Amino acid sequence: MLTQLLIRNYALIKSLDLTPHSGLNVITGETGAGKSIMLGAMGLLMGERADTKALWAEGEKCVAEAHFSTNPADLQEIFENQDLDVEASTVLRREISASGKSRAFINDTPVTLDVLRTISSRLMDIHSQHDTLALAHRGFQLSLIDSFAQNHQLRTRYAEHWAQLVAARQKYKEVTEQAERLKQESDYISFQLDELNKAALAEGEQEQLESDVKVLENAEEIKQRLHQSIALLSHTESSAQNTISEARGILQPLAQFSDMYRQLVHRMESLRIELADIVRELEHAEERVEFDPDKATEAQSRLSTIYQLQKKHRCHSVGDLLQLRDDLQAKANTIKNIDHEIAHAQQQLAACEWRVADSGAKLSQSRLTVFQPLTKKITVLLQELGMPDAQIKIEHEAVTPQASGCDNIDVLFSANKGMAPKPLVQVASGGEFARLMFAVKFVMAERTAMPTLVLDEIDTGVSGEIALRLGKLMQAMAKNHQVIAISHLPQIAARGQAHYLVYKSTEGKKAVSHLRLLTDEERVTEIAKMIGGDKPSASALANARELMA
After folding, report:
1. Other C-beta atoms within 10 Å of 350: how many?
2. With 160 labelled, which of 148, 281, 322, 536 sits at a CA distance of 20 to 30 A?
3. 113-123 helix and 72-81 helix, angle to the nearest 10 degrees
4. What is the pLDDT of residue 429?
C-alpha cells in the first residue's frame, strides 16, 4: 500500500506530504482547490507525460515521490524482469527539471518511463474522470473479463505465442521476398560468379604482375647494368674484390702489433665476404633477366583483365574482387537452398499458428465461463446502487487470432425495465456510467492484488440514498485494498477512515494548494459545509454527525 506521497513544485502545489490510512481515505475540497492537480502529480509516477508549464516555481525542479509497503514475493518476478532488486519498501520518484528534462527512479535506481509504468501499474490503479469513458472500449472490457476470470497466466502465454507468431510471419515474409529477389537476380549472379571464377585470381597477384612487367619491359637495360656492375666488382684485374683482397694482405702483418690493426684487418675480411656475396646475387639476378616479348605481352594481358574486372565491379584491389566472388558464391548457395529455407519458415509459421490457436482457444474458453457470473455480480452491485432494473449482457464473437486473443467482446447495458441492452455508448448517462464503472472497479478489485486504488470522483451523478450505498461499498472495498477517493459527496466523505481537505491560499502573487488531515470535529464541520454551504446550520451539523455515525 501507499505509505507516503510527496509532491514538490507541481502546478498549484508548492509542497505536499500525504501519509494515507491503510483503508478508505477521502479527499474533499472546493472545485479548483487542487484535488485533480494532486491526481496529475500522481500520474507522473504512472509514467504520464510531463510539462514544464506545470512547475509552480519555474526555476526549480518538480518532484513526485511515492513510498509503498510491498510484499517482495508478489513483485519478485516483475522486478527481476526489469533487472531491479525487490525490497519490502518500494520508492517511485519522478523529477522534472526546469529545462523540461524528465528522470524516473525506482529505489534510487534510474529507470526508463516504460519500466516506471510497468512497476507502478502493479502498485497503484488510478481512475480519473476521463477513464469512465474507457468502459465503452472493447479492450477495457476484455481486461475486465480477464481480471474476473484470473486469466493472467493464460493471457501471458497467449501473448508469448502471439509474439512468436508475429516474428514467424515476418521471417516467412522476409524469406519469400528474398527468394523472389534472388531468383530474379539468379542469372546475373551466376554470370558474374562464373566470370570471376574463370579469372582464377590470387591474392597479391596484381602487385607481382606489375613488378614483372616493369622488369620485362626494361630487360635489356637491366641486364646491361647488372653485367657492368659485376665486371667492376669482380671480373677485372682492378676489380673491387681484388683491390680489397690486396689491401687486406698488406695490412695482415700489422695485426701482431696492435688491436686496432687487428680490428681493421677483421673489418677488411668482412667487407671482402660481403662484396663476394653481393657479386653472387648480381650474377644470379643477371641470369634471371631475359628479354621475352611474349612473356611481357602475357603479363600485360593478365593485368588488363584484372583492371577491367576492378573497373567493372568498382573494386580497388584483387582482394576486393575475391571478397565479391565469395559474396556472390554465398548468394548462389542461398539461391540453391532458398526452397529449403522457405519450407522451414513455413513449418515454423504453421507451428506458431497452431500454438496461438491452442492457447487462444483455452483463453476464450476461460472467458466464456465467467460471462454469466460476471454479469450477475455486476447486476447485483448495480441493484445495490439504486438500479433495480439494470441488465448486463456480454456479446461474444469468435474472430481470427489477434493481439488480445480470438474474441470480440461487447458489453451491453440497459438501466431501465423493458429496454433491451445496447452498447454502452448508446444508453448510459453520466450517473449510470459512474455507477457502472464503480461496480466494475469493485469486481476487478476483488480479483486482483492491486494494493492501492485511487478513485477520482467516481461518484459523479450520484446523490442521496445511492451515495450512502456507494460509500458502504467503498468501505467494503477498503477492507482488502487501500482506497483513496476524491469526492464531492458528504455521504462518501463520512465513510472515510481518514479525511483530507484540499484548500487554496495565496502566497505572494501565486495561488498555492494545501492538503491536511482533518480531526473528527473538523470533519463534522467540513461535511456539514458539503451539505449546507460555507456557514452550515445546526441541522447540517447534526446531519454530518449522523452520517459519520
Report:
1. 12
2. 148
3. 160
4. 63
Joined together, the cell numbers standing for residue 114 give: 516504460
Reported confidence tier of residue 133, pLDDT bands at 50, 70, 90 = low
Nearest alpha-carbon partner for 23 in 520, 439, 481, 433: 481
Residues of the chain by 3-state class (helix, strand, coil), percent to 5: 60, 20, 20
| For residue 222, pLDDT beyond 70 | yes
Strand pairing report for 422-423 and 109-111: unpaired
- Over residues 310-322, the mean pLDDT reads 81
What single-letter DSSP state applies at residue 100? S
Contact 385, 438 (CB under 8 A): yes
Say if residues 315 and 324 touch (Cβ distance below 8 Å).
yes
**pLDDT tens digits for range 319-329:** 888 888 888 78
State residue 157's pLDDT score: 94
Matching residue, cell 441541522: 539
Nearest C-alpha neighbor of 368 from the set 129, 128, 151, 139: 151
The candidate with the shortest Cα–Cα distance to 19, out of 68, 83, 92, is: 68
Task: State pLDDT tens for residues 496-547.
Answer: 999 998 888 887 778 888 888 999 898 898 988 888 888 888 888 888 888 8
Cα–chain-centroid distance for residue 451? Answer: 27
Distance of CA 544 to the CA centre of its chain: 52
Q: Supply the pTM of this predicted model.
A: 0.64
Residue 502 in contact with residue 513, Cβ under 8 Å? yes
> Quick one: angle between helices 259-288 and 219-230, nearest 10?
150
Residue 18, SS3? Answer: strand
Residue listed under C-alpha cell 522476409:
174
Average pLDDT of the residues in 306-313? 80
Which three three-digit cell numbers place residue 163?
509474439
Is the distance from CB of 102 to CB of 89 less than 8 angstroms?
Answer: no
What pLDDT score was predicted for residue 449? 65
User: Which of left, alpha, beta for 422 (phi over 0: left; psi -120 to 50: alpha)?
Assistant: beta
Order of strands across the sheet that contains 391-402: 391-402, 405-414, 422-423
Strands (E) located in 169-263: none
Number of CB atoms found within 10 A of residue 467's CB: 22
Q: Which amino acid is at 356?
A: V
Of 360, 433, 448, nearest to 390 by C-alpha is 433
Q: Give the separation between CA 549 and CA 62, rounded to whole angstroms.
A: 40
Instruction: Tell me which residue of 249, 269, 247, 265 sits closest to 257, measured CA to CA.
Output: 265
Name residue, grid cell 454502452.
424
Q: Which residues pair with 510 in a beta bridge?
A: 507
CA angle 172, 175, 177 (to 5 degrees): 105
- 262-307 pLDDT, tens digit each: 888 898 888 888 888 888 888 787 777 776 677 777 777 777 777 7
* Mean pLDDT score of the chain: 83
